[in-house]
Write a structure and sequence with these properties.
mainly alpha; 29 helices; about 0% strand
């Protein structure tokens, strides 16, 4: 019995022999294709006498059958996918046509009903006019209604054809004609209210259908520029100007994005050429959209606002794209030239839109500025490193190189302030190197290992440092700065006379030049401080210019040789040498040379004025200043005033400081109880002795029969003999 059951089950569902026979799916499904197939009866009959093993076998068989069925369905769908899509489109089109036909039939039915109602009402009306019979009135009304009915039917048929053939101009003319007829019918009451309502509703529906056709045409990428403008203008004439303008801008945006994708696909590098092409593409598209917007909607503020918003969006997208593909890499590498060229091209294209009322430069600058600043910083850092390398190999011998102005395009990036500050920073770093080249600079003393520049040993080399910095700050750097300053509206091809002067005289430019000058002043002050310290201190660090020079003079019994002290003789000799050097180097800049000598002299005298130990010993020390020491101190100060006056570098400040310290020395002597004026000679004596010293130190002294004398050791008799002449 069990064997029969298994055999029956195997033969019914296709046991192991059938599974191994690789039957086709069609053969396997024959049992299920019959019209009398009953699923429940089939399962009951096959599974009623099955044991557990047979049930599992049947289950696995059905699962396998399900998988095979799903795979067959998938293959069938893929094999007929194109036909399926085509059929779906045809069905959709057919549904649209059926819907249009239904609307047309509904409209015609409503029209017929309306006409019937009108005929019925007219037949029931009578007229008391004396000159027309009832029959004449009926005939006339019937004739009028017949003409309107005929026109309406022809109108709808003709409009349906025009819309189906997408003849826009004729469709618009037909709609306008229908509107006019409907208005006349309403005024003359030649149509019943229901018929007139149906006519107006149908005109409105067809107008909307035409508007949708136009909107679809505007959105098609294949629509040419002329057709696009015509469609937008037609849509506006239909009373949907806002929609027309929005669709116009969206159409240009889609075309722009497609062109950008094509451009990116055809470019393997994103350098200046890519930036130029992309910029031209974006801003020419914006310009064309602005032209079409003006032609379609005019200068309506609401539409203008939408255009500006759209243009700003496109400019921002362009800026982000260019920044990501071109500017970011060049800025990170510090390539200011590439960055500047790209932005200048963009700014040039962007400026062409300003005549159309679209000022998009601020949008670009907002996104480009950080990259330009990064590139500028990197570039300035390299310049600073190059300057340090050049300074390290400089022998500080002055060589004049002819320079000439060179025209250059102006960066309209509103970054002149940042660029000028960067140049100032580089110049300050260069001045620090020049200060480090001075023999007595603090940097050399504290960090001798980090010294990268050669020491300027001679006074000529040290003066050359000043000339170098002055020439840069006073001429070369300001001249180069004109290339990055805004032109202020001047035409580069025909520059206005004095245009560069106007730019240099702007308040911010004047302040920037003052900062350059202050850096030069810092180098000059270091120069003066170094030379003053060489005079005041010995190489071992001991003070040479001390109060003992004058205090000890009153302890000797011999009359002194009245001549300036050795340290002031050295000061005079140093100033004379430097004056000779600067007269050769500072050609055309005599004022700076004069200030240099003035500051050097002031540095020495101010040290005396401010040295508290110097005055404490003279005023309150164990051995206060005496008459002879006062006279020598007076002579030294007068000597400084005389040679500074003759050299034309005696400043008012220096003159006043010398007068003040002479008066302080006189008060110190007066504090001891002595009357200094009883021992001091007249002022003319000091001036004459100072003049003798100057002539003797310069080798110009002439003392009659005494012959040539040792100018370094003059005697008081020489002074007396000279003053008596």
């Amino acid at each position: 019995m069990e064997a029969r059951t298994r055999g029956s089950m195997s033969s019914s569902i296709g046991g192991s022999e059938e599974l191994e026979a690789n039957l086709t799916l069609s053969d396997r499904l024959k049992v299920f294709k019959g019209s009398t197939f009953d699923p429940e009866a089939y399962v009951t009959s096959k599974c009623q006498h099955m044991n557990e093993k047979e049930t599992k076998h049947l289950t696995s068989y059905l699962v396998e059958l399900k998988k095979a069925s799903a795979e067959e369905m998938r293959k069938s769908v893929y094999a007929n996918y194109a036909a399926f899509i085509r059929t779906s489109k045809e069905i959709s089109a057919l549904e649209g046509q059926l819907l249009s036909m239904r609307n047309l039939l509904s409209a015609q039915a409503a029209l017929v009903h309306g006409l019937a109602d009108g005929v019925h009402i007219s037949s029931l009306c009578t007229d008391d006019a004396d000159d027309l019979t009832d029959q004449d009135l009926y005939n006339m009304d019937s004739k009028q209604l017949s003409k309107i009915e005929t026109w309406v039917v022809e109108f709808f048929d003709r409009l349906e054809v025009l819309l189906a053939e997408k003849r826009v101009d004729e469709s618009m003319a037909a709609l306008e004609e229908g509107r006019r007829v409907a208005m006349e019918a309403q005024e003359q009451r030649t149509l019943s209210p229901s018929t007139l309502l149906s006519l107006n509703n149908e005109i409105k529906a067809k107008r909307q259908e035409l508007a949708d056709q136009l909107a679809e045409a505007i959105g098609q990428p294949s629509t040419r520029a002329g057709e696009l403008r015509s469609a937008v203008l037609a849509l506006k004439k239909l009373g949907d100007g806002s929609r027309a303008h929005t669709l116009l801008l969206k159409s240009y945006e889609r075309r722009l994005q497609a062109n950008i994708q094509s451009l990116r696909g055809s470019n393997t590098s994103y350098g200046v050429a890519f930036a130029a092409t992309l910029s031209q593409l974006v801003f020419s598209t914006i310009a064309q959209a602005a032209s079409d917007s003006l032609a379609v909607v005019g200068e309506d503020p609401s539409y203008s606002s939408e255009l500006v918003t759209w243009a700003v969006k496109q400019a921002e997208s362009f800026a982000l794209l260019l920044k990501r593909h071109t500017l970011a890499s060049s800025a990170a590498a510090g390539s200011l030239r590439v960055t500047a060229e790209c932005i200048q091209l963009c700014a040039s294209h962007c400026s062409s839109l300003e005549s159309r009322g679209l000022a998009l430069s601020p949008v670009l600058l907002k996104h480009f500025r950080p990259g330009v600043e990064q590139a500028l910083t990197g570039n300035l850092k390299r310049i600073e490193q190059s300057s340090a390398a050049l300074a390290a190999s400089d022998d500080w011998s002055l060589a004049y190189t002819p320079t000439g102005s060179r025209a250059s395009s102006n960066e309209a990036l509103q970054l002149d302030g940042i660029a000028l500050d960067g140049v100032l920073q580089v110049f300050n770093a260069y001045v620090d190197l020049l200060i480090n080249a001075l023999p007595g600079s603090a940097e050399n003393e504290e960090n001798p290992v980090h010294r990268i520049v050669r020491i300027a040993e001679t006074e000529s080399q040290q003066t050359a440092l000043l000339v170098n910095a002055l020439l840069l700050a006073d001429e070369l750097i300001p001249r180069s700065a004109l290339r990055i300053l805004p032109q202020g509206g001047t035409n580069q091809s025909t520059p206005r006379r004095g245009a560069s002067s106007d730019r240099q005289n702007r308040p911010e430019q004047r302040e920037w030049k003052k900062k350059l000058q202050r850096s030069v002043d810092r180098l000059r002050d270091s120069f003066c401080r170094q030379h003053a310290l060489e005079l005041i201190f010995t190489e071992e660090g001991e003070v040479r210019l001390s109060s003992e020079i004058y205090i000890l003079m009153d302890e000797t019994t011999e009359e002194p040789e009245w001549f300036p002290s050795p340290i002031f003789q050295e000061l005079f000799a140093k100033l004379t040498r430097i004056a000779t050097i600067v007269s050769d180097m500072f050609v055309g800049r005599e004022r700076f040379a004069t200030i240099l000598l003035m500051r050097l002299t002031e540095t020495v005298i101010l040290w005396i004025s401010d040295d508290q130990s110097f005055w404490e010993e003279m005023e309150t020390g164990d051995k206060p200043l005496g008459p002879l020491g006062l006279q020598q101190f007076y002579l030294d100060m007068e000597f400084v005033m005389i040679f500074a006056s003759q050299g034309r570098y005696l400043s008012r400040n220096l003159h006043q400081v010398i007068k003040n310290i002479i008066a302080r020395a006189i008060e110190a002597v007066s504090a001891t109880g002595l009357d200094p004026y009883t021992t001091l000679p007249e002022e003319e004596w000091f001036a004459e002795v100072a003049q003798i010293a100057i002539k003797m130190l310069t080798g110009k002294g002439n003392f009659g029969g005494h012959g040539e004398r040792d100018v370094t050791s003059p005697s008081v008799s020489s002074a007396k003999s000279y003053t008596s002449n």
